[in-house]
Fold:
Amino acid sequence: HPAKTFTIFAEEQTKNTRDMKKAAIIIMALLALSLGMKAKSHMENPQTPETDVMETPTKKKLTGIWQMCRPNQEGKMEFLPQFKILCADGTFQNMLLVSRNFRFGMGATGKWKVKDNKLIEIIDSDSGNDFAGKTNAMPLTLSAHGNVMHIVWTRPATGEPVGEYYMRVPTRNQYLEGN
Structure:
């Protein structure tokens, strides 16, 4: 019976899709963990995050994987399990990894560009956050020889400015770098 055959086929496709998504999430989470460890070992902890500020950040200088960090009480950078991936093709992905439960969260996705010292993210409408379907232009400072990015965005609900620091994760990836 054709309808029953289609139903079985659709169920198999749904299961295959779920399995593929689970596998992709696990692979990305493992990648994020390993990249985070590399970022920690690669960079010396700068005492002040904004040293050697670059005059004009460019798309080429921003392309790559960035791990969120913040200065701790001693002024050294502390790494957080949040990543911003800026690809050479103009797409971006934000992701969060919670290691205690090995949970993985996909944040906003969309297109990005840099203009007038601002990182501009055009967020996909299906991103599922407050910025879904909007453009977010964030003032940007690139420092520490191009390895520390400081962005400021505005919380939509309150209008409160939020500053975030990211440290470049060293990588050699043709898709990210466009080589």
Q: What stands out?
A: The CA atoms of residues 57 and 142 lie 6 Å apart. The helical segments are 2-42, 59-62, 174-177. The longest strand covers residues 103-115. Residues 4-10, 13-27, 32-48 have pLDDT under 50 and may be disordered.
